[in-house]
Design goal:
heterotrimer; A alpha+beta (about 160); B alpha+beta (about 240); C alpha/beta (about 625); A: about 160 residues; alpha+beta; Glutaredoxin; four-stranded mixed beta sheet; 7 helices; about 50% helix; C: about 625 residues; alpha/beta; Rossmann fold; Ubiquitin-like (UB roll); 5 domains; five-stranded mixed beta sheet; 25 helices; 19 strands
Chain lengths: ~160, ~240, ~625
């Protein structure tokens, strides 16, 4: 990645090491994940050990150390969604995408993730696909939505 | 500043800032612990050192390693409740460290010889091998040796300890302090074939020899000390007595 | 130079705003643009209204205003027409042209967009007539339906920042007395009186103090804090400024979940406006008060809702709680006295200052004054955010406001307090809800999540769900929490799979005891509540799993079987969709599931249009 972008982010926070979490978040927002070279660069610039950054990156759920798929499917696992069958949707997507929850398909097309709760409980069970909320979703509708993305891939 | 309080009904004196466990041990009251060491900041991870503390008329169960002494508190180091909870904590620890002698011995003292919980068969658990997540290695590495090679990774039941990216930590000088302080002896520290090896972290470093050809310490470590303390360039060439 | 340099200026500024609005006399169409309605497609509805208004040349007569959450998420997208407060629900973009033509221009009521009560079919015209709203006391949430959260003028026009000017006139000591008298208790879960927190923080010797707003709303199924930040961010900012003034802090932080992008966006705008208008910065409203607020985005760790973990995270460290033998109000962020309250608590503060503590304590119960916002979700007809006076019964909240249980199913339990709370059965429905009563029954208020469960919800599965959540969210420091919760989850999983015995249950109880007694922070010390409360009130259900290897609710996969009944007309849809190809049957003949191969994914039941798939 272009490390000058990381420099710019660090600059935004005046190179302050207490803003480590925010700096890591901004880098991830830009790259979709936290590349190792960026971690090393932040470590050197802020004088924070790599071990601590890695520790933060694995402690906080929002960080990803591997590149993620082009399409991100996030299943809400809040209590309201749970009692309306969210777990079954995760299993369904695992089968449809041939990837375990938390993983990315080999062709880097899809990442399947879970989120604790996005607080759109009236629409549960809820799946977010590429930022778009699909409420009261059924396995049939999920299959259709995924198929649409898969075929779009072929057309590109 | 002096602080006065009681332990098991006995009046004791301590310095402000001391921890209950240290004072209790000084006065001969035994409190077991697996994550405490005087040289590093108390962490309160293992929960074995639970005691009862009465403060302002209210009794609560708390860890004694990170509880700073206060005037007028009443400390109880053993009771039925304390015994019961320590036994359960040790049973949980024993399940994950069934081969660690100090854990086995301590658990037996609390009547726990076999854990009712099965050892996890996950890859992670295999990797941990008797590690009880006490964090002593991490604290020694960051606070005493100050190379920050180690840290906790992940969280919850997925917590692990080691170098970044689960690889041999590049800032590790193979000093062995972590292996020395480890309560379950699960790190592994050997010198063979002119190499110093810290097994758990996969760190291997070639040794420097003195003028008589005897190995002193890893080159990388000596370099680190030389830089850190501004030692003369040829210091390690001389025999220990003449440095 | 700040726009508003003193209290008098604020008053005249407000008068101008109100005058202008009155003069324009525009009809306001408030369209809910909270996360829930956005998911229903609210942005498209807003766009359609704007386009139509433009097309019809009504721009000087009608204002289209996207607002924060109106609470009635079940019926989104919500369109509230002021001043009559006529409410259209489930509005789709296609319907907008007709609404503009007939209702806004013609004054005609379009029946099909009105709320219809599912049990009686009765339709209601205005918001306050609808039972869902009628029984609420919406002191905080009410403004969400009127304010454009991106406009500080809207907030000021409604009396915003008046609480602050009153506070500045009263002085810190008198404000503290007022907040203490109001006995406003922490809405984040603990219920600790905010006034006492403020007092200790104010009195702690230091040259520096911090004010933090905890918006790391982590309880699954709770979204009231998000909705306040999305809908009325200035109320929270104002509350924080008053707190800072009272205790003598000059720096503030809002720690907000990164999963709440819209809340972050609206808060960012609001903070920028507050700075520009002069409510933040140096010499606020001409006094010597200096105060600024920064946003910190959470990293996705439930444990960071715990104050010490949250502060560690702001300091750029891993969010691990530490022992609080010295409280954070004395030694918190960067070891300085720090006052931390949650979003809803801060939003209550301007009200208390504005209307007085006496007014405030006239609401709610003696021990828990005021209102509480609940997120009423799960198996309930009217899912949404509910603001009720403390002391309302669970029955009133779930049945009068919530409209009861859908599909004619029976109420089984309500889970309150999130992962730290418990499940209460039907016999507790007449419990008056406040901080203390819930605690006494083995549950807690928590942040106000209220998840309703019906007879199709398995309580063993619910306990398993929360333990699974908590074992994953534990920071991993304490043995009791890290290992204890993992083991509890294993044990409850055993029961859900029919592998448990009575000994499993007694080991669960024994282990719960130590997890509670031996853990450092509230995540661990309350983690046993979901399992203990379900054991207490639904032991029979556990025993059915243990003794009969049966899941009465038909949820636990290992203990259930799918079967096709005579209702099957042989349409073959299920057979085609079965991922394991384990449904046999010819066209127009009864299908049969091969239970050896069945993975119990439930797709056959989902796709069957003839209700022919049953769970045994």
């Amino acid at each position: 990645m272009d490390l000058t972008k990381v420099d710019a982010i660090i600059e935004n926070y005046d190179g302050d090491a207490t803003s480590l979490l925010a700096i890591m978040q901004d880098v991830q927002d830009q790259e979709n994940y936290l590349p190792r070279e960026a971690v090393n660069h932040i470590s050197a610039k802020l004088d924070v050990p790599v071990s601590r950054i890695y520790s933060m990156a694995t402690f906080f759920e929002s960080f990803h150390l591997e590149p993620r798929g082009k399409h991100i499917c996030t299943v809400c696992m809040g209590t309201a969604c749970h009692v309306r069958g969210a777990q079954r949707l995760v299993e369904h997507l695992e089968r449809d995408l041939s990837v375990k929850s938390g993983g990315t398909t080999e062709d880097l097309q899809f990442t399947l993730e879970e989120v604790n709760c996005v607080g759109a409980c009236a629409l549960g069970p809820l799946v977010i696909i590429d930022g778009e909320y699909h409420g009261n979703v059924t396995s049939t509708r999920l299959t259709k939505a995924v198929k649409k993305l898969k075929t779009r891939k072929g057309g590109e | 500043m002096t602080v006065q309080f009681t332990i098991n009904g006995v009046k004791v004196e301590a310095q402000k800032g001391e921890s209950v466990i240290e004072v209790a041990r000084r006065y001969g009251f035994e409190i077991p612990s697996l994550c405490h060491h005087q040289a590093v900041t108390p962490y309160g991870a293992c929960r074995v050192c639970l005691v009862e503390i009465v403060k302002g008329g209210r009794k609560k169960l708390t860890t004694s390693c990170n509880y700073e002494v206060l005037d007028g508190i009443e400390v109880v180091t053993d009771s039925e409740a304390i015994h019961k909870h320590r036994a359960m904590v040790l049973e949980l620890i024993l399940a994950e460290a069934p081969d660690a002698e100090p854990v086995k011995k301590l658990a037996a003292q609390y009547g726990v010889n076999v854990s009712r919980f099965e050892r996890s068969d996950t890859e992670m658990a295999q990797e941990r091998h008797d590690c009880i997540m006490c964090g002593l290695c991490v604290r020694v590495c960051t606070e005493i040796v100050e190379v920050n090679a180690l840290a906790f990774n992940g969280r919850g039941y997925n917590r692990g300890v080691g170098g970044p990216y689960l690889e041999a930590p590049q800032s590790c000088i193979a000093c062995g302090a972590c292996a020395w302080v480890c309560p379950t002896d699960c790190i592994g520290f050997v010198e063979e074939d002119g190499m110093r090896k810290v097994l758990k972290w996969d760190r291997e470093l070639p040794m420097e020899k003195d003028e008589n050809g005897r190995p002193i310490a890893p080159k990388f470590q000596l370099h680190y000390f030389k830089e850190k303390f501004g030692l003369p360039a040829d210091i390690y060439k001389k025999a220990p007595g003449s440095r | 130079m700040a726009l508003i340099s003193n209290s008098a200026k604020l008053r005249s500024y407000r008068e101008e705003l109100v005058d202008k609005k009155n003069k324009e006399g525009k009809k306001v169409v408030a369209i809910c643009a909270g996360t829930g309605c956005n998911a229903y497609g609210s942005p498209k509805v807003v766009a359609a209204f704007r386009e139509e208004i433009e097309k019809q040349g009504l721009s000087d007569k009608i204002e289209i205003k996207p607002t924060g959450c109106h609470g009635f998420c079940e019926r989104g997208t919500l369109v509230l027409m002021h001043p009559e407060k006529q409410l259209y629900q489930r509005v789709k973009p296609e319907a907008v042209a007709e609404i503009v033509e007939k209702t806004l221009k013609g004054g005609e009521v379009l029946e099909e967009h009105l709320y219809d009560e599912p049990n009686t079919g009765e339709r209601y015209k205005t918001e306050h007539e609808i039972p869902f709203y009628k029984h609420q006391e919406r002191l905080i949430l009410g403004k969400n339906g009127e304010i454009d959260p991106t406009s500080i003028d809207d907030y000021i026009a409604m009396g915003g920042y008046d609480g602050l000017t009153k506070a500045l006139e009263l002085g810190p000591d008198a404000v503290l007395e007022e907040v203490k008298k109001a006995n406003v208790r922490g809405r984040g879960g603990g219920g600790f009186p905010a006034g006492r927190k403020w007092e200790t923080c104010k009195n702690a010797p230091s040259d520096k103090r911090y004010v933090i707003c905890n918006a790391d709303e982590g309880d699954p199924g709770a979204f009231m804090d998000r909705s306040i930040l999305e809908g009325n961010p200035h109320a929270v900012i104002e509350g924080m400024i008053i707190a800072a003034f009272t205790i003598g802090a000059d720096e503030g932080y809002v720690y907000v979940r990164h999963e709440y992008p819209l809340a972050i966006e609206r808060l960012t705008i609001a903070l920028a406006q507050a700075r520009e208008w002069g409510f933040l910065g140096k010499g606020i409203l001409g006094t010597d008060l200096d105060f600024n607020i920064k946003i910190n985005r959470g990293g996705g760790a439930f444990v960071c809702g715990e104050s010490t973990a949250l502060m560690a995270s702001i300091e750029g460290k891993v969010g691990e709680p530490r022992a609080k033998h010295i409280h954070t109000v004395v030694a918190g962020l960067h070891n300085k006295p720090t006052n931390l309250n949650n979003v809803e608590t801060y939003a209550n503060i301007p009200l208390i200052l504005d209307k007085g503590a006496d007014w405030y304590i006239s609401k709610g119960t003696k021990g828990s004054p005021g209102t509480k916002i609940f997120s009423l979700v799960g198996k309930v007809n009217n899912t949404g955010l509910v603001e009720a006076e403390m002391g309302m019964t669970l029955r009133q909240i779930i049945f009068d406001i919530g409209g009861g249980i859908p599909d004619g199913n029976e109420f089984k339990a309500v889970q309150t307090g999130g992962p730290s709370g418990g499940c209460l059965p039907a016999s507790k429905l007449d419990l008056k809800v406040d901080f203390d009563s819930l605690w006494e029954e083995g549950s807690m208020m928590g942040s106000g999540g209220m998840i309703v469960m019906d007879d199709k919800t398995c309580m063993v599965d619910v306990a398993k769900y929360f333990l699974g959540f908590l074992k994953f969210e534990s920071c991993g420091k304490c043995t009791t929490c890290r290992e204890g919760l993992r083991r509890l989850h294993e044990l409850v999983t055993d029961i859900s799979e029919g592998k448990g015995t009575e000994e499993t249950i007694s080991l669960i109880e024994e282990l719960c005891d130590t997890v509670e007694a031996g853990s450092l922070c509230a995540l661990g010390t309350t983690a046993m509540n979901p399992v203990l409360s379900t054991l207490k009130y639904f032991r029979d259900e556990y025993m059915a799993h243990v003794n009969d290897h049966r899941c009465p609710a038909g949820v636990c996969k290992e203990l259930i079987t799918y079967e096709i009944t005579d209702n099957c007309n042989g349409c073959m849809v299920c057979a085609k969709r079965c991922p394991e190809n384990c449904i046999a049957g010819e066209k127009k003949q009864l299908h049969v599931i091969d239970n050896e191969k069945c993975i119990k994914c439930g797709i056959c039941k989902d796709v069957c249009k003839f209700d022919a798939v049953r769970i045994y």
